[in-house]
Amino acid sequence: MRTKYFEGMTSHTQQEKVFKIQHFAYKMRNLYTENPELFNEVVQYIPYIVHTNRKDNLDIIYANEKLLQKGPELEKLVELGGSYLPEISCNTLLKSAVEKAKIFAKINDGHAVCNYIQYLQVNKVKKYVYSSKLLLDENLYFNLSVFTEEMGMIDKMFNSVFGAIHQNPIKWQQFQSLTKMEKKLIKLFADGHSNNELAEMLFISPHTVQTHRRNIYSKLSISKAAELIKISLVLEIL
Questions:
Q1: d(Cα 13, Cα 49) in Å, to the nearest integer?
Q2: Example GO biological process term (predicted)?
Protein backbone atom coordinates (compact mmCIF):
# COMPACT_ATOMS: atom_id res chain seq x y z
CA MET A 1 0.00 0.00 0.00
CA ARG A 2 2.90 2.37 0.74
CA THR A 3 4.28 2.20 -2.79
CA LYS A 4 1.48 4.23 -4.39
CA TYR A 5 2.76 7.32 -2.57
CA PHE A 6 6.02 7.08 -4.53
CA GLU A 7 4.50 6.73 -8.01
CA GLY A 8 5.92 9.03 -10.66
CA MET A 9 9.06 10.04 -8.78
CA THR A 10 11.30 9.75 -11.86
CA SER A 11 13.13 12.27 -14.01
CA HIS A 12 10.92 14.97 -15.59
CA THR A 13 11.27 18.38 -17.17
CA GLN A 14 11.78 21.25 -14.75
CA GLN A 15 8.12 22.33 -14.81
CA GLU A 16 6.96 18.74 -14.38
CA LYS A 17 9.18 18.44 -11.31
CA VAL A 18 7.41 21.41 -9.76
CA PHE A 19 3.93 20.08 -10.58
CA LYS A 20 4.94 16.69 -9.21
CA ILE A 21 5.89 18.23 -5.88
CA GLN A 22 2.57 20.08 -5.70
CA HIS A 23 0.63 16.90 -6.47
CA PHE A 24 2.64 14.95 -3.92
CA ALA A 25 1.83 17.60 -1.31
CA TYR A 26 -1.88 16.95 -1.88
CA LYS A 27 -1.39 13.23 -1.47
CA MET A 28 0.57 13.61 1.74
CA ARG A 29 -1.87 16.15 3.21
CA ASN A 30 -4.77 13.80 2.54
CA LEU A 31 -2.86 10.86 3.99
CA TYR A 32 -2.02 12.93 7.09
CA THR A 33 -5.71 13.53 7.75
CA GLU A 34 -7.15 10.20 6.61
CA ASN A 35 -4.59 7.68 7.83
CA PRO A 36 -2.12 9.13 10.37
CA GLU A 37 -0.57 5.74 11.08
CA LEU A 38 0.32 5.13 7.45
CA PHE A 39 1.46 8.75 7.10
CA ASN A 40 3.94 8.28 9.96
CA GLU A 41 5.33 5.21 8.19
CA VAL A 42 5.54 6.78 4.72
CA VAL A 43 6.95 10.15 5.78
CA GLN A 44 10.19 8.49 6.92
CA TYR A 45 11.06 7.56 3.35
CA ILE A 46 10.03 10.54 1.21
CA PRO A 47 12.72 12.99 0.02
CA TYR A 48 10.83 16.07 1.20
CA ILE A 49 10.53 18.19 4.32
CA VAL A 50 7.04 18.06 5.81
CA HIS A 51 5.66 20.27 8.54
CA THR A 52 2.42 21.75 9.81
CA ASN A 53 2.24 25.23 11.23
CA ARG A 54 -0.27 27.64 12.69
CA LYS A 55 -1.99 30.20 10.49
CA ASP A 56 -1.81 33.01 13.03
CA ASN A 57 1.90 33.03 13.92
CA LEU A 58 3.46 30.30 11.69
CA ASP A 59 4.68 28.32 14.73
CA ILE A 60 5.53 24.75 13.74
CA ILE A 61 3.33 22.07 15.29
CA TYR A 62 4.72 19.00 13.52
CA ALA A 63 7.98 18.48 11.61
CA ASN A 64 9.39 15.32 10.09
CA GLU A 65 12.96 14.18 10.76
CA LYS A 66 14.23 15.49 7.41
CA LEU A 67 13.56 19.05 8.56
CA LEU A 68 15.19 18.53 11.95
CA GLN A 69 18.27 16.93 10.39
CA LYS A 70 18.98 19.78 7.97
CA GLY A 71 20.71 22.02 10.47
CA PRO A 72 20.67 23.64 13.90
CA GLU A 73 18.87 26.72 12.58
CA LEU A 74 15.85 24.63 11.58
CA GLU A 75 15.87 22.82 14.91
CA LYS A 76 15.80 26.23 16.56
CA LEU A 77 12.96 27.31 14.25
CA VAL A 78 10.85 24.38 15.45
CA GLU A 79 11.70 25.25 19.04
CA LEU A 80 11.17 29.03 18.90
CA GLY A 81 8.47 29.26 16.24
CA GLY A 82 7.70 31.80 13.53
CA SER A 83 9.27 34.69 15.45
CA TYR A 84 12.70 33.18 14.67
CA LEU A 85 12.18 33.23 10.89
CA PRO A 86 13.49 36.80 10.34
CA GLU A 87 16.83 35.80 11.87
CA ILE A 88 17.50 33.10 9.27
CA SER A 89 15.56 34.39 6.26
CA CYS A 90 15.94 36.79 3.38
CA ASN A 91 13.54 39.52 4.56
CA THR A 92 12.36 40.28 1.03
CA LEU A 93 11.28 36.71 0.32
CA LEU A 94 9.97 36.19 3.85
CA LYS A 95 7.70 39.20 3.52
CA SER A 96 6.51 37.95 0.13
CA ALA A 97 5.78 34.46 1.51
CA VAL A 98 3.91 35.84 4.54
CA GLU A 99 1.74 38.07 2.34
CA LYS A 100 0.94 35.15 0.05
CA ALA A 101 0.00 33.02 3.06
CA LYS A 102 -2.38 35.73 4.34
CA ILE A 103 -4.14 35.93 0.98
CA PHE A 104 -4.21 32.14 0.75
CA ALA A 105 -5.84 31.85 4.19
CA LYS A 106 -8.62 34.23 3.15
CA ILE A 107 -9.38 32.16 0.06
CA ASN A 108 -10.02 29.18 2.36
CA ASP A 109 -9.99 26.61 -0.46
CA GLY A 110 -8.96 23.09 0.49
CA HIS A 111 -8.11 22.31 -3.15
CA ALA A 112 -5.85 25.33 -3.64
CA VAL A 113 -2.08 25.38 -3.19
CA CYS A 114 0.19 28.30 -2.28
CA ASN A 115 3.71 28.00 -3.67
CA TYR A 116 6.55 30.16 -2.43
CA ILE A 117 10.31 30.46 -2.21
CA GLN A 118 12.37 31.14 0.90
CA TYR A 119 16.07 31.83 1.27
CA LEU A 120 17.03 30.26 4.60
CA GLN A 121 20.28 30.01 6.50
CA VAL A 122 21.14 26.36 7.08
CA ASN A 123 24.46 25.43 8.66
CA LYS A 124 25.42 29.10 8.23
CA VAL A 125 24.83 28.99 4.45
CA LYS A 126 21.84 30.62 2.70
CA LYS A 127 19.88 28.22 0.49
CA TYR A 128 16.68 28.40 -1.55
CA VAL A 129 13.74 26.34 -0.32
CA TYR A 130 10.66 25.70 -2.48
CA SER A 131 7.42 24.99 -0.61
CA SER A 132 3.83 24.03 -1.37
CA LYS A 133 1.38 25.13 1.31
CA LEU A 134 -2.12 23.66 1.69
CA LEU A 135 -4.90 24.18 4.19
CA LEU A 136 -5.08 21.45 6.83
CA ASP A 137 -7.91 22.75 8.99
CA GLU A 138 -9.22 26.09 10.28
CA ASN A 139 -6.07 26.66 12.33
CA LEU A 140 -3.23 24.89 10.52
CA TYR A 141 -1.32 24.73 7.23
CA PHE A 142 0.26 21.60 5.77
CA ASN A 143 3.62 22.27 4.06
CA LEU A 144 5.84 20.17 1.82
CA SER A 145 9.25 21.66 1.04
CA VAL A 146 12.47 20.85 -0.76
CA PHE A 147 15.81 22.63 -1.02
CA THR A 148 16.26 23.67 -4.63
CA GLU A 149 19.79 22.21 -4.58
CA GLU A 150 17.99 18.85 -4.60
CA MET A 151 16.00 19.81 -7.73
CA GLY A 152 18.81 19.64 -10.30
CA MET A 153 18.78 22.40 -12.90
CA ILE A 154 16.15 24.38 -11.00
CA ASP A 155 18.75 25.27 -8.38
CA LYS A 156 21.19 26.61 -10.99
CA MET A 157 18.39 28.62 -12.57
CA PHE A 158 17.36 30.14 -9.25
CA ASN A 159 20.87 31.16 -8.34
CA SER A 160 21.66 32.59 -11.77
CA VAL A 161 18.34 34.31 -12.49
CA PHE A 162 16.20 34.74 -9.41
CA GLY A 163 19.12 35.38 -7.10
CA ALA A 164 20.10 38.43 -9.12
CA ILE A 165 16.50 39.70 -8.97
CA HIS A 166 15.53 39.26 -5.33
CA GLN A 167 18.84 40.51 -3.91
CA ASN A 168 18.62 43.76 -5.88
CA PRO A 169 15.90 46.06 -4.45
CA ILE A 170 15.27 47.82 -7.76
CA LYS A 171 15.08 44.60 -9.79
CA TRP A 172 12.83 43.05 -7.14
CA GLN A 173 10.42 45.99 -7.33
CA GLN A 174 10.37 45.68 -11.11
CA PHE A 175 9.73 41.94 -10.87
CA GLN A 176 6.91 42.54 -8.35
CA SER A 177 5.37 45.17 -10.64
CA LEU A 178 4.61 42.63 -13.38
CA THR A 179 0.86 42.66 -14.09
CA LYS A 180 -1.28 39.52 -14.36
CA MET A 181 -1.40 39.96 -18.13
CA GLU A 182 2.38 40.34 -18.33
CA LYS A 183 2.91 37.20 -16.25
CA LYS A 184 0.52 35.33 -18.53
CA LEU A 185 2.30 36.60 -21.62
CA ILE A 186 5.73 35.65 -20.25
CA LYS A 187 4.67 32.00 -20.23
CA LEU A 188 3.16 32.26 -23.71
CA PHE A 189 6.25 34.04 -25.08
CA ALA A 190 8.42 31.34 -23.49
CA ASP A 191 6.30 28.70 -25.21
CA GLY A 192 7.29 30.24 -28.54
CA HIS A 193 4.07 31.96 -29.63
CA SER A 194 4.39 34.88 -32.04
CA ASN A 195 2.81 38.30 -31.55
CA ASN A 196 0.14 37.52 -34.13
CA GLU A 197 -0.70 34.18 -32.53
CA LEU A 198 -1.02 35.78 -29.10
CA ALA A 199 -3.13 38.62 -30.47
CA GLU A 200 -5.57 36.08 -31.89
CA MET A 201 -5.55 33.96 -28.70
CA LEU A 202 -6.09 36.90 -26.35
CA PHE A 203 -8.34 39.03 -28.59
CA ILE A 204 -5.98 41.98 -28.58
CA SER A 205 -3.97 43.67 -31.33
CA PRO A 206 -0.44 42.57 -32.33
CA HIS A 207 0.68 46.10 -31.44
CA THR A 208 -0.63 45.64 -27.86
CA VAL A 209 1.21 42.33 -27.60
CA GLN A 210 4.44 43.97 -28.78
CA THR A 211 3.97 46.78 -26.24
CA HIS A 212 3.58 44.19 -23.48
CA ARG A 213 6.70 42.41 -24.71
CA ARG A 214 8.74 45.63 -24.57
CA ASN A 215 7.44 46.41 -21.08
CA ILE A 216 8.31 42.92 -19.84
CA TYR A 217 11.85 43.08 -21.24
CA SER A 218 12.29 46.53 -19.73
CA LYS A 219 10.97 45.60 -16.26
CA LEU A 220 13.11 42.47 -16.11
CA SER A 221 16.19 44.07 -17.67
CA ILE A 222 16.54 41.24 -20.19
CA SER A 223 17.16 41.13 -23.93
CA LYS A 224 17.07 37.46 -24.92
CA ALA A 225 14.30 34.88 -25.24
CA ALA A 226 16.41 32.36 -23.32
CA GLU A 227 16.30 34.64 -20.26
CA LEU A 228 12.54 34.91 -20.60
CA ILE A 229 12.21 31.12 -20.57
CA LYS A 230 14.11 30.92 -17.28
CA ILE A 231 11.95 33.64 -15.72
CA SER A 232 8.85 31.82 -16.95
CA LEU A 233 9.89 28.83 -14.86
CA VAL A 234 10.46 31.10 -11.85
CA LEU A 235 6.89 32.36 -12.22
CA GLU A 236 5.59 28.80 -12.44
CA ILE A 237 7.26 28.07 -9.12
CA LEU A 238 6.22 31.31 -7.44
A1: 22
A2: regulation of DNA-templated transcription
- Give the rounded distance of the alpha carbon of 87 from its chain centre: 21
Question: For 124-134, what is each residue's pLDDT tens digit?
Answer: 999 999 999 99
Transcribe 38-83 into DSSP letters.
Answer: HHHHHTTTSSSEEEEEETTT--EEEE-HHHHTS-HHHHHHHHH-GG
Q: What digits encode the pLDDT tens for the residues 6-59?
A: 444 433 466 677 888 999 999 999 999 999 999 999 999 999 999 999 999 999
DSSP state of 136: -
Domains and CATH numbers, the chain: 2-155 (3.30.450.20), 168-237 (1.10.10.10)
CA angle 132-137-72, nearest 5°? 50
Which run of H or of E encompasses 138?
A: none
- Confidence at residue 14, expressed as pLDDT on a 0 to 100 scale: 67
**Contact predicate 81/57, CB 8 Å:** yes
Closest of 53, 49, 45, 41 to residue 83, by C-alpha:
53
